[in-house]
Design goal:
Layout: E1 5-13, E2 18-26, E3 31-35, H1 42-50, E4 57-62, E5 65-66, H2 71-75, E6 78-82, H3 93-101, H4 109-118, H5 132-145, E7 150-154, H6 162-179, E8 182-186, H7 190-196, E9 199-204, E10 207-213, H8 214-229, H9 240-245, H10 247-258
Parallel strand pairs: 3-8, 3-9, 6-7, 7-8
Antiparallel strand pairs: 1-2, 1-4, 4-5, 9-10
Length: 259
C-alpha cells in the first residue's frame, strides 16, 4: 500500500533550535502518536508538515505529491486541529463552513452537516460561543468535510478532561476507519496514545529518537521486564510512559543480548 506521507531528512533551523533531518512514513488509515518533552520539536515538526516550503532542507511527500514544490495543492490533502485555528469567531458554524470551506476543492457541505449532527453541534451556534472541547469537535467536523488524506493534531486535546478526551478519540478512530484518513497526534499525554496510536515517535532535542509500531515497543518492554524480573513481570498491560522512560535501558540490554 502506498504511503500517504513520506518525510525524508526534514530540517528546520532557527536561531536557537534545529529540527534535524527527520525521516518517517505513514500508511493510509493509521494513527501516529508524536510525543516528547516540551520544546523537543513536536510543534516544529507539525508546522513543517503544514508549511514544508519553509523548511531548511529535506522533502515532504503527501499522497504522492511533492508538498514543497506545490504547497497550495498539498494543503488540500491536509486537515489541521490545533488549539488556535483561523475560524471566524462571530459567525455561525454554518457560515464558517460556507466561507472557509470555499478554500478546499473537495469541501462537502452535506458531509459537514452530517458531522456537525454526529458531534452534537448546532450549525446556528457561533464559533465564539463554543467551549474548547466543542471547538475541537468543530475543527474535526470541518477537516473531515473536505476529505483530507492526512490529519495533523498539535496538542489539540491538552488541558481537556479525561472523559471528553475519551469521547473525542472514539470519534476520531471512528472517522479513521470510515474515511481511511491517516493521523499524526502531537501530544505529551501518553495515556491518549495508549488508546489510539498504531505507531509512536519520540522526539528529543530536535531529533527523532525512535519511530516504531506501538505493538513492537510494548513487546520490547515485556521482554525487558521478563529479563529483569522473570516471566510474570512481562505480562499485562504496557503503558507508553513506561516504555519511553526505559527506552535507552531496553535498547542497551537488547544490544548486549545480541553480542
Amino acid at each position: 500500500m502506498e504511503n500517504i506521507l513520506e518525510v525524508k531528512g526534514l530540517t528546520k533551523k532557527y536561531f536557537a533550535f534545529t529540527l534535524k533531518e527527520v525521516s518517517f512514513s505513514l500508511e493510509p488509515g493509521y494513527i501516529l502518536g508524536l510525543t516528547g518533552r516540551n520544546g523537543a520539536g513536536k510543534t516544529t515538526l507539525i508546522k513543517q508538515l503544514i508549511h514544508p516550503e519553509t523548511a531548511s532542507g529535506g522533502s515532504v511527500i503527501i499522497n504522492g505529491m511533492d508538498a514543497k514544490a506545490d504547497p497550495i495543492a498539498a494543503k488540500q490533502e491536509i486537515g489541521v486541529l490545533m488549539e488556535e485555528q483561523p475560524f471566524l469567531t462571530d459567525v455561525t458554524l454554518e457560515m464558517n463552513g460556507i466561507l472557509l470551506g470555499a478554500f478546499y476543492e473537495r469541501f462537502d457541505m452535506e458531509k459537514f452537516h452530517e458531522y456537525l449532527k454526529r458531534f452534537e453541534l448546532s450549525r446556528d451556534t457561533t464559533y465564539r460561543n463554543l467551549s474548547r472541547g466543542m471547538r475541537m469537535k468543530f475543527q474535526l467536523a470541518f477537516a473531515l468535510a473536505h476529505s483530507p488524506k492526512l490529519l495533523l493534531m498539535d496538542e489539540a486535546t491538552g488541558g481537556l478532561d479525561v472523559v471528553f478526551r475519551r469521547e473525542f478519540y472514539y470519534l476520531l478512530q471512528e472517522a479513521v476507519e470510515k474515511e481511511m484518513v491517516s493521523v499524526i497526534i502531537s501530544t505529551h499525554v501518553t495515556e491518549d496514545l495508549d488508546k489510539v496510536a498504531d505507531y509512536v515517535a519520540f522526539i528529543e532535542g530536535g531529533c527523532m529518537k525512535f519511530y516504531e509500531s506501538k505493538e513492537e515497543l510494548c513487546e520490547l518492554y515485556r521482554d525487558y521486564m521478563r529479563n529483569l524480573h522473570g516471566e510474570a513481570a512481562g505480562r499485562g498491560t504496557v503503558k507508553l510512559e513506561d516504555v519511553i522512560y526505559n527506552y535507552d535501558k531496553m535498547m542497551d540490554r537488547k544490544g548486549a543480548a545480541k553480542e
